Amino acid sequence: MIDGRAVSVPLVIEEPVEPVLARLGRTEDIRFSPSNRRLAVAGFGKSRCLLLDVEIHRTAASATLGITGYLQIESAALSEPHGFDFVDEHTLVVANRRGFVSLFRLPERAGVERTIELSPFRMVHRASPWRRIHSPGSVCVTRADAETCEILVCNNYRHRITRHVVGLARTSVRNKILLDRGLDIPDGIALSPDKAWIAVSNHNTHTVLIFDNRSALGRHSAAIGTLHGVSYPHGLRFSPDGRRLFVADAGSPHVLVYDAKDGDWSGERNSSLSIVVMSQEIFLKGRNNPQEGGPKGLDIDASGRLLVVTCEEQAIACFDIARLPSEDAPGRLPSGCGPEVLRPAHAADNPLNITAATAVASPPSQ
Question: What is the rounded CA–CA span in Å between residue 315 and residue 295?
């Protein structure tokens, strides 16, 4: 059983930022910048990008996430922004569900509230030399070299993953359809830190598919691993050591945790842990259909300690995942009794979840 250690991280939000978060509306993704000094939130409903200035304060026993300022980006290129990732501290990639993939140069942190209009310096329009990109949702970025990045894009309603090698200093883009076998609304994507594994949230099969990126992947490549037990997987992220995968379940109030002790993600597996990341009241408020209500975007900070999630009814919640039990922690429920569940306590009248929380164990399901 799990004891009552606190895992929810208090948010300290400066007064000018709080109303901006409260008015953000439907969100889809959230991403830390490489330095952990910025946090990007996808304002899907209002076609905006919100960049938050953040400060993480840590002690051996606890952490606090401070939000000190914001930069709100508006652009004609933003059309239902659904997926974010950073190339570096000053370059943001945005996948627009009703548009294309846009790359923005970000100004320096302002430290005060403001809204600006930006135009992208690069756009990705094509899935391949013969096909246009369609319904780009989630993105995953790696840096190839100083002048080039590689972007993996979920084309949600074309049921495929595309790969784009994009020049940062020159106008060169190479496009390729990478994967489509077995995909049915790919709604989230993550690359393991060693680049060996690609994880894809497969919405309509209620699974996460794992592909071996060390092999010569092509459109007909099959998944070599499958993660079960999630209703509508959305954002997902590997831990820094690549042995744990966190998956936001948009159809429940949970983030599911999967483990590969040896770093090998092939084969079938169920979740090791399930974290309740919102109150039942908040979950039901956003549950307009069976696919909604739970967390959408998810990210882990560069230290691997803090997990952030976002959805329309809870713009930001933060958790100290360093306090979660390891897969083989003593006192786990016996096999077959169901996953351990950490339940953070929330103030019912606090839409921003600016609280601490206590973790308790749920009884095994019957």
Answer: 10
